[in-house]
Fold each of these.
Amino acid sequence: MKTSHHAFLMAVLISCAAQAAPSDIIGHIQNIQGTATIERGNTTLPGIKGTALYRGDRIRTGKPGAVGIVLTDDTSVSLGASSILTLNDYDFDPKEGKFSLVMRMLKGTFSYISGQIVKLSPDAVQLQTPDATIAVRGTKLLINVEE
Amino acid sequence: MNRFISTPPSRLSGATVLGLALLWLFLMMLSGCAKQAVILMPDRDGHVGKAEVSTTKGKQTLDKEGDTTSVISKNFSPSSVTTAKPADIQKTFGEVLAIEPPPAETFTLFFETGTTDLTAESSEKIAAIIQSCQQRGAISVSVSGHTDATGSDQLNDQLARDRAEQVKKLLVEQGLNPDLITVSSHGKGNPAYPTPEGVAEPRNRRVVVIIH
């Protein structure tokens, strides 16, 4: 049992190491109204037009607040007031054939417009709400997560 | 929960079943049953794709404009698919739709064979790219080099990257802020015209500039 745990841990560590460096910019805030913050590790930053986004970021809008973000593969996500989105995983590396996009919509209203990752690797994209997972084939979705 | 359901009902007394049902209801109330709705819409080109909404208990497929389903718990299937009313969409999502980023502007540049020299026609696009960046107040400019599926990967990727770097140099010379620009090679992994391995396709040997 212990050995298999170790093997599992090693596999997790290796797969983490194989991902793009966490320092890579994965997108930007393109539009903003009212207030929005970015939670990154233990720090909270004010969101402004042009703020760079990284894997693991949590974006939270105020009330009033609305924000539009664009990821480097052209995926576009907009958040209405009092909304929370986390960018759990992201990889856009056509040269190596590595693609991943996992986002979690925790509460609020969202518009999602698919980008190049869905075209190149449809199974790589997963949107999550508290109780559901959504697989996407190249399109736009509106998602409402009530509190 | 699954463990309870998989126990043969004949072994449970009526009181136990009632107790479990009450416990389940109580847990549902605790979890809040926040409703989560998903609506399928056409993208910017008018193309309607597909989405599959899943919980641990089932799945619904949305494949027509306005198709919608909702989920109240991971322990229930998503609701049957219905059609969302435009007025309801506007009421709930008006704010979100208004903040959607404008579509990217994309330029494709071609080169003289085997070199980092832009064709005459593509050279003229550099000024148009600069103009677009100024008009939009661009926040990011992605410059990616692409190859076709012939020749050595290593040589191809190097040439694709060199071409993308050359485009960056030209844009910076024309006054674009280098901090906005990211350069990458997509190699043969993101073709404009997909081909089998080994097929020459000049239209895939290109640099794509995407302005947001």
Note: Residues 152 and 198 of chain B are 10 Å apart (CA to CA).
Amino acid sequence: MSEEIERLSYDVVVVGAGGAGLSAAIAARQAGKRVAIVCKSLFGKAHTVMAEGGAAAAMGNVNPNDNWEVHFRDTMRGGKFLNHWRMAEVHAKEAPDRIWELETYGALFDRTPEGKISQRNFGGHEYPRLAHVGDRTGLELIRTMQQKIVSLQQEDKRDHGSYESHIRVFAEATITRLLTDGNKIAGVFGYQRKTGEFFCLDAPAVVLAAGGIGKSFKVTSNSWEYTGDGHAMALLAGATLINMECIQFHPTGMVWPPSVRGILVTESVRGDGGVLKNSEGKRFMFNYVPEVFKAVRDHRGRGRPLVRGPGQQPASPGAAAP
Amino acid sequence: MARAINSEIKAGRGSPHGGIFLDIASRRTPEYIRKRLPSMYHQFKELADVDITAEPMEIGPTCHYVMGGVEVDPDSAAARGSIEGLFAAGEVSGGMHGSNRLGGNSLSDLLVFGRRRAGVGAAEYATKIGERPKVAQSDVDEAVTEALAPFTRDSGENPFALQAELQQNMNDLVGLIRTADELEQAIKRLQELAARVHNAAATGGRAYNPSWHLALDLRNMLLVSECAAKAALMRQESRGGHTRDDFPKMDPVWRKVNLICKLDESGVQVVKQDIPEIPTRLLDLFEIDELHKYMTDEELTRHRDGGSLSDTTAASEGGAVNGVRRETARLARRRRGW
Amino acid sequence: MGYDAKLRVWRGDDEGGELKDFTVEVNEGEVVLDVIHRLQATQAPDLAVRWNCKAGKCGSCSAEVNGRPRLMCMTRMNTFTEQETVTVTPLRTFPVVRDLVTDVSFNYEKALEMPAFQPPAELKPGEYRMAQVDVERSQEFRKCIECFLCQNTCHVVRDHDENKPAFSGPRMFIRAAELDMHPLDAAENRKEFAQESQGLGMCNITKCCTEVCPEGIHITDNAIIPMKERVVDRKYDPLVWLGSKIFKRAGA
């Protein structure tokens, strides 16, 4: 190859600049590492901004009964117990600290009357648990971490003379390959969208934070970036993927016109009197009602009658060992 | 509801654009709708000039989030498999959400696993690695050749058209409700598409050229599609974000199984792997009658109520070892004729 | 009903370019970005366009439609007549990369110069207490999706590259205001910084920025004017300045 390729060296390369990528970059820089962040879009434009509902963390600000154990239970139930228990546990335990940390970066969540972070109810969560900022919580997360990275770059400028001495953002750049040395990560290879020029970043550690795969489906709420880059490059580098059959579909997203395709229609439309009709104008849900009942019965049928030994007390969740 | 929508569409009674109609306009007055659903009314009006008070909406299943992803160590976020130095966090990683993610858990997932785990894990690994692995020039050359290939295919295919075909295939055959027949069909079509994706062509130059970008992205989209389709075919039950019309029930035996995708010379392979056993201290956070829905009787012998009276008493006194409890419970259950 | 629209799109790069005419199918309910995508998929695969969420939330697809700064995903085709030629050009204030994509790095450079949020030393994480009414003022500015339409339309820098070094623009003024109004920001010189280092004084309040903001942020009325007023206060009355800080703390 005659082409001259820019080659740079870092300790950690983070692929993706959504919430996970920026969190990882901040942590790695705070551990003293030189970090490159590579993102397909402009800095601060990740798919994370689409998240409206909020961030679940059992802070107990609205209902003091909430705690990590309740959050853990809800998460496992939601995942129908296919979750890795340790991930669900770590997540439930550490989420409040991560939310509070964002406040120290300047995040402004909605407040309770006492001035704490407000928490809202959401499907599957036993107590009001979602820290939120109106319906733009994802944007608040991204902006907050983007600004935290800027503040770290300002410290680096002060201490080392350059904004980019420890964190450099490669915006509008796509990684096409993970490079390896035997079974070890050695770096990444990609191109700059703007110029089409290639670059190679040498690094012993790579964090994939590249988001999801929604763009493989015609109707999706995901943005163009969601082409499964991280999943695919991990596979190609010898990593394994888990639970790939589990994909969340919302049954009622707009399919037409294209300007709103993928935008989700809330359940409340049906609650408020909306009905489903087919191309013949018929309300077809009636035909399926018996099926629905059957499904419910089957569901219940799997449970066993509760048999207890003599004198055994019905257990309560509160009695459980931590 | 999802199943009903799916059946109508597949029976050819769908809307012109592959969905079905959600009609509130003919059922409620415009004033009522505007009052009850103000933000939706305005959003659709502004973005698409769709007036939900005057016409039905065309709706259908919409892909929202993938629970599956890179298999990681829960504490360091290090990727499993044959590679070292790779970490993953956020939607690209798998395991945290099981078969279905709760709303609100994805943003906190990003923060927890991005920061505490992947960022810290990667930094620690970079510190202790010692000699840095080296990038081989031949690997870089190969990556350059691969990246430039779409420019060399003079009679290649339009990547936008290929993407549309791939998306239609996944939407129709690996969507919300799945069957073995359709999944097998999907896998076959993906294999056909693979050959054509290798012939995707870019037109124009290298500066900010979407046709080139997409031609390269297609490799990834194809791979993840293959993973999803093959794993979906193997899991013969319905659970969370995986619904099989031919296996409509959740099966506790399948709960004990994770499906793992890996790549070898012949393509994506899916293998079964035992799910990590939930420790008793966490199992005990649930009532046992709830757990029957998810777990086999054998697994539940580890629950505080899974055994006999004496075994529970012993546990509460802190005197029981798990293995002993399990055995006692098993015997107790046999006595009761379970 | 679908129809064939006349589209005129600027194509070129930093060395020059021209408007090119296209005829593209348009369907009911579509926005400009849909039509640009169809053009890309069927006639011009290498047409450069920056976009991301296609739902008015990310601020990527900024361009000028018939000369007006707009998000392409939020501009419906039925706001034009079927006979009308719709002209789409890149943002004028920033250098062209290619076609509809501009180099917006000016905005990121200005952001790097903006002193960051300074956390209060006496509070630990989890101890922050703020009233909703107090956070709402800053929250308005944090709705910003960084589409940079305000930066693009501001006449201080539009057609005046020479002003760019000394002028940070409306996007950065609302960032300054946001931090100034943040109930717990420990930095105390936000307004002075805006005046002396960001070029706040060059703004003469023509409200063009407010008009183009897709988020409806009252950039001029709620950020720029209060900042200008308070700069004057502080310059002439140190007691007002001191009082405002003490009051802010007490109320926090």
Note: Chain A has seven helices and 14 strands.
Amino acid sequence: MTKMLNLKLRIWRQDGPHSQGAFLDIDADGIPEDASFLEMLDVVNERLIADDIEPVTFGHDCREGICGTCGVMINGQAHGPEKATAVCQLHMRKFDDGDEIVIEPWKAQSFPVLKDLMVDRRAFDRIVEAGGYISAPTGTAPDANEIPVPKEVADLAMDAAACIGCGACVAACPNSAAQLFTSAKLAHLNLLPQGQPERWRRTENMVETMEDYFGTCTNHGECHEACPKEISLDFIAFMNRDYVKAKVKNRSLASQR
Amino acid sequence: MTITLDAKIPDGSIAEKWDNHKFSVKLVNPANKRKFEIIVVGSGLAGASAAASLAELGYNVKVFTYHDSPRRAHSIAAQGGINAAKNYRNDGDSVFRLFYDTVKGGDYRSREANVYRLAQVSVDIIDQCAAQGVPFAREYGGLLANRSFGGAQVSRTFYARGQTGQQLLLGAYQALAAQIAAGKVTLYNRSDVLDIVTKGGEACGIVTRDMLTGAVHGHTGHAVVLATGGYGNVYYLSTNAMACNVSASWRAHRKGALFANPCYTQIHPTCIPAADEFQSKLTLMSESLRNDGRIWVPRDRDETRAAAEIAEEERYYYLEEKYPAFGNLVPRDVASRNAKTVVDEGRGVGPLKNGVYLDFAAAIARDGVEAVKERYGNLFDMYERITGEDPYSVPMRIYPATHYTMGGLWVDYNLMTSVPGLYALGEANFSDHGANRLGASALMQGLADGYFVLPYTIGDYLAPKLGDTPVPTNDPVFTDAISAVDDRTRRWMDVKGTHGVEHYHRELGKIVWEYCGMARNEAGLQKALSEIPALRDEFRKNVKVLGSPDGINTMLEKVNRVDDFMEFAELKVSDALHRRESCGGHFREESQTPEGEALRDDDNFAYVAAWEWKGADAEPELHKEPLEFENVKLTQRSYK
């Protein structure tokens, strides 16, 4: 028979970005250990609805750990206690009967709370729009095999491109810095031969847009610890090196005009 | 209004049709493209690729998504790969072979001309994506790697680890981001499309609800493109994301767009079975597992021992026994139906007796743990994370789940629905997969439609409209649609019933899964047709929506979607009832071969069933588009 857990939850509730929030203390009894963390919240919500209380709002969609929509702080940890796991893939068997679980939204100024556990991460999109792409209008591409990409390079680019944009890196960082997210996108594109023509302008624009929104990196490494895709800190070093180079390169490119 | 179903298939041989058509469609000159506004709903592979490509051409594009970011659309979850007739393996692939495999795999219920075009542009997709920086798997020489996939005898699938959908979507999303930065695309995120607006029979806009503020707005355009995905969540449990819904398509249907083949649904055989009544969605495990896993159930229905204690002769390897030639590698639909049969017989495994074993013990004994880990390590980890069981030491438990829907809005060769100016792309349309979709073909179709088909065909509709201003949003067609949306919202808020939305969605799912799932029969479908309207009435009278409509309200978002599913489900079941043949994912128990395989009835059912909405209290009207096969010979599938 499935083991059942009785839990004590403290869930952050907040009506809107400018409202005062508060914790809701609620007992969640009879939670099957095979339920996912979000299914546990579903159960809590159905019980709230039965009592005519508005359900807790939280972001979620694919529930397969790939869309990056979900993410909450669980007892102070972004995405909770299981390593390399987004909260939708975290299951209740990782908790014990009688546990107290504190559930809060991502805490970062650039991710304002929209309601309860749901935050606004549009700043990430602004960073990508600043240069996180390769300009290749539809129809212009040469045959895919005309530009060989060494396997090691493709694999490393894929490691970086695996980022799901959930924001756990920012939430876990004491400075609310977005270096891991930004550097992952930069590494994905800057490593590939197709990404070279725009490499320097991309780097300068993305880094500076990032700095408009987010704090500064002081190499704590909490981002990597929290990352459900285990994106490597090396990419941050790679980005810093490219940014310094970009400052020089973009000048010399400009002087050629 | 009488509807004439003209697929507008171009003249010429199958290989010439697309080229002929590209030359014959009207063009909008580059300077004039900026005079047009195009609305794109959905930001998955089809929507994002279409929006980016149209903006690159110079059109002004508005993109609507209910996500916070376009990158989160459910295309992102596709694992396996994308097909293309590149023939990089030198193994005899060609455009014609991909076309042939797709028509055959679809059990001869798709339109030849569309499928051929899909195969033709497949090669351009790979070029486009590689140029965008999609990190496809590579060989040591730096050239692209391929894998083989079900339903094909050549190796034509391109992939990026097990995250091909993610990488292709990020490519399209990044192209879209570039156009947003350039000011050619305006993004409306967290916007729920609640109605499609038409004037004089032509599409002119949409009505949306801002999911943050609750504000309802009209948006106008010269054309409206729906790339809003499939209807798999009508089953409640599926591999779809939680928010996937049929609403945009259904609202378009109510405004005159015909809905084609809604009974066609693909049930994927290897998903993790539900663990408890709170299960919210099902997770797919890659089909590749069937290459090495052996599928079995205990012979004894009252078996209670652990798998390892059950002796070899007490195990029922039902696929290997029934299909000695193909064994565990029979196609998706056959594997799914057989799993249902043994579970229905009471032989299911697991605490809820709702799965079958997929056992790797033989593969581990033969090749060693390391070899198995090398092949399937990430899948085994995912399984362990979800179930808490270690598949290296106990067999996996699997069961089929709804995965993809081949039916959708009827479209002509230009991807235009029966409403002029309204287009449907990707999974939202019906055109390319017939009654069954082959693996690695969904990504191909979404991107083909968005990158390489719509940008050519939409000009044909727009060119004569040069100089027309879009219908203003204070026109009665908009204000009426907006007040209808407001009324609907008020009705939900006023019901103050006793059950939440989730309850009704779950109940609907049970009916549709039971009677219109893996196997269907006359009596069951009739039963569903009486139960669905009763449930819908009860739902509308007794659903509980709390909170305020003026702000974030997830219950309100969902109640509209479930309401649309309630109406859609009835059409889906009606379609299944009318199609008294089995084909692909549609298995009518009355129509099977002596071996229990799907038996088509080409004389009576070789057509697309396109349904017309006739009002809430009227029967939908069936229109038939006959399917003619000039290049592929119709045969009976056999996997013995």
Note: The first helix of chain A runs from residue 37 to 50.
